[in-house]
Amino acid sequence: MSYADSSRNAVLTNGGRTLRAECQNADGNWVTSEIDLDTCIGNPNGYLGWGMQNFSHSSEDIKLEEGGRKLTCRPKTVDGGFRERQGIDLNRIQNVNGRLVFQ
């Protein structure tokens, strides 16, 4: 289940590379957590992909959409141009007892 189902107030910080949200833990308390998306999302030639790194180093106009369920941006291609807006579903970011993790 995506973090978005048990978290609130999701925002991007650090130029879009860090996802911060208030996540509900097992006790029902809301805890602020962050995850560096550059550790799990990459940009191979203008498309976003999981299990890679440093997408934000080669992307512009990074945003959260669909209530924080999707990250979108304009990723750079190997020829130096930028693709039209691309998106990746953040369903692999989970809330594990109040902590954002990549799974």
From TrEMBL:
Q: Which residues form the Cyanovirin-N domain?
A: 2-102
**Which Pfam families does the entry link to?**
CVNH (PF08881)
State what protein this is by name.
Cyanovirin-N-like protein
